[in-house]
């Protein structure tokens, strides 16, 4: 470890807040928007989510069909690789488990690729999107999720850096082998655990 | 194309300039450096005496051929890292940096590109302009930049010299009256086959990228880099 930076005192430190992973700061009430592409405008009536790949029953749900699944809420914190964290968020939607239980991944399906309407992709081990750890969400704080934040529907995988929570989600493909998604091809880590600071390839 | 990526390095501050109020251009001698492509960024990590660290990303303004790496840092009043870099750093200081980073918002120096930047969002575009100038290929680039006033536009002289369209929101520039960047500003710059690079605040990047899509650019050809707080209305908490 290099020594201290001359004259740097540090003033953001959130009094050792245990909710803050290393290298992160509390963004407070702000919620920065970071995307690599123009924001698409997707009407809920035209939105669908498809689960395919290594599954027994490839399935597509419409907006109404997805809303008929058991609702599920996430309350907690989110962490962006650009170093902001946001505490006490509240998202409403469905659990990814609800979709996978119906599509039924085969025994060989060990990874997923989440794909956005824009073509954005991000890869995850299947264990990171099952067991109550991942959601498709259409509400933030009880209001419809805005297009800038991935509405009408985004994925939410809050225990990983937020680029894994694909905005404008349209497809979840179950895979036998891991493949790098958009940022993962562009230098970012394959898993992205904020508590291990897995920001870039090699971390 | 796979963009270059570098790990943690020590950089010595070779010099700094403050041509724009509330910002600093840091000229860094990065030891054992991996050359970047224009558009990439570096992370700067500061460490306090007790081991506390803070890190932020800054775009590179220099061309790959520059022997030094130049970072442009806008000083945010509540910024922990930017206030240190703008107020405390002196030539000779050592900084811990990591880079280059980012494989999407990069220009290869060989393909036609439309560059659209707002405020300090012009910085990675300046690296592209400098690289094009070094290659003798400024003909590949069309540039439009926006700021409140010319005095607040980073690298204004270089951008004017490169023929950039300058859209100022608080003062006229030449015959162009004070106004936000419009589709009519961008229309003459657009040519089929260009990749567009849009960089700025969340609000600027959103509106500029929507202008380009409205002009008919395929969304897949518009690369966006946003920074800073969201300009969107947020629910009261």
UniProtKB/TrEMBL annotation, chain A:
Q: Where is the Oxidoreductase molybdopterin-binding domain?
A: 38-183
Q: Name one Pfam family in it.
A: Oxidored_molyb
Region of interest (Disordered), ranges: 1-31
Annotated InterPro entries: OxRdtase_Mopterin-bd_dom, OxRdtase_Mopterin-bd_sf
Xref: PANTHER family:
OXIDOREDUCTASE MOLYBDOPTERIN-BINDING DOMAIN-CONTAINING PROTEIN, PROTEIN-METHIONINE-SULFOXIDE REDUCTASE
Q: What is this protein called?
A: DMSO/TMAO reductase YedYZ molybdopterin-dependent catalytic subunit
Q: What organism is this sequence from?
A: Modestobacter marinus
TrEMBL record, chain B:
Task: Tell me which UniProt keywords the record has, alphabetically.
Answer: 2Fe-2S, Iron, Iron-sulfur, Metal-binding
List required co-factors: FAD
Metal-binding recorded as keyword: yes
Which superkingdom heads the taxonomic lineage of this protein's source? Bacteria
* GO molecular-function terms, A-Z: 2 iron, 2 sulfur cluster binding; oxidoreductase activity
Please give the PANTHER family that the UniProt record associates with this protein. Answer: NADH OXIDOREDUCTASE HCR, PROTEIN RFBI
- UniProt keyword annotation of Metal-binding present: yes
Name the InterPro entries on file: Cbr1-like_FAD-bd_dom (IPR008333), FAD-bd_FR_type (IPR017927), FNR_nucleotide-bd (IPR039261), MRET (IPR050415), Riboflavin_synthase-like_b-brl (IPR017938)
Query: Know the name of this protein?
Result: Ferredoxin-NADP reductase
Which source organism does the UniProt entry give? Modestobacter marinus
According to the entry, every stretch annotated as the FAD-binding FR-type domain falls at: 6-107
First and last residue of the signal peptide: none
